[in-house]
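DUF6396 domain-containing protein
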Amino acid sequence: MNSLPRNMPLATFDPHMKIWMCRYEKSAEPQLDADAEQWFREGLALTSFELWPDDRQFNKAAALWTKAAEKEHWKAMLNLASLYVDGKGVTRDTERAVQLVEEAMRKGVPKAFDLMGTYHINGTGVKQDATRAYAFWTLAAEMGNADAQAHLGAKLMAAYDDTKGTVWSNSVIGRKMLECSYAQENGNGASELGLRIALPEELERSLKVYHDGVKFGNEMSAIHMAVEFRGGLEPGGPRPDPDRAERYSAIADMLRLNPDLRLPNLDKVLPLPPAILPYWDGEKETLINGAKPVKATSLADIKPSPASLRQGRAHIPDGLVLPDEPQGGHLIQHLHTDATISGFWLAQLAKPYTPKQVAWNAAQVPMYYAQGESFTPPEDITKESGILRFHYLGTPVPKPPAARHVPDWRVPQGVLREIPVPSRDLRSSGLLTAPATGFWHGEVDPAHPLAKVFNQWTRQAYVEEGQPFPDPRDRGLDISPKDIQWQWLDQANQPLPSGRKDITIRNFSP
């Protein structure tokens, strides 16, 4: 038993430590098997907070996570352990929960050491022991676990040592831990840091940290901001702003219902002062959907055919397309003759050899002619253009059903929105200002030492044209803006071609 990770030798927690180094847990997390990852995601969809409690299928999730755990998927191990602790979908078995956490500990997962600390403080499957709990949390924080950093950092930010040993005065190290947790976009870290930033000297940064905490999905950060803008948290705080307070309060309610939400584009619907608040229709869902991360996807089922947008002879009704092969076979006719069959015909210059002729042929679109109708010569055709022929392409047929679109696994969970692929491909270095207003997704080269930390699906920001892109150094990440490539994902608030409206947030007209 002494060789089990739960009983491993540990350095005693020292609340008055003088040295502590910030590390990031993403850098230590093992790679995941692709099949196991799919099973893990399916389990998440079955237990999503978007579902009513009675609709969550923990038994099916447990089966999927068991399969994934057998392939050493550490996230599935920890989720499955939580099911065994609560007895959801499985028979309650705290010993099995501890064993699963130990498996993840053997793989070097920082989160597993943090969870083992929680088991020791609560006596879950092990003997209750606060000393070992703090020792495990210290090790987890040193390994980079952001939750452990936030928890211990807050404990060390007291003005004095509590005689009961619950808080200590070591603000230098406590602040380092909170800053490290915040740099990893941990909601608890942001909330604890914002609360303990010295006021009034750092009031502006405190609001920024809380605001980021809301982006990270932290309910308490949203509550703090709602209270701040009601004018009730700190003397000398921001001027009372009931409209902002109402929005933060609404978001706090939604985060309470779904802690999995992440809101990287919060600035679109709720920017910090002095920015003017955009219009809001009062629906909580509108705020959340406008701030969620987005994923650009080809949604062919809601896009009309380009031919349906043409007028006159070139118009093809939406839902119809020309066949791959014309009915009855290929047919070519000369100018100044009558169409022998009704259908769409394409004008083409025979044997084009000049760049101008090649470009002209490429620009032509099919045109409808009824049987017996004379072909009309295009206005820009002259005798010098060359010999013109009309090629029969057939009559429109129903468009074949598009391949069923399978949404990203996060869409059914309600934490991601899919949008049509932008009509233009815009990219920009982080050193430049944004060339267009909208959502931007940032990434660094995979070879960058902090790529695993930075390249996340939530690494997005709503940036207005001419404004700078976010600087990771403001959050403590040692990444130069020049190393970041930002990709434009459109504004995601325009009416779609089908007429279905997406999230629309517009500015007040003064």
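thats it. The two ends are 72 Å apart (CA to CA). The first helix runs from residue 34 to 46. bye
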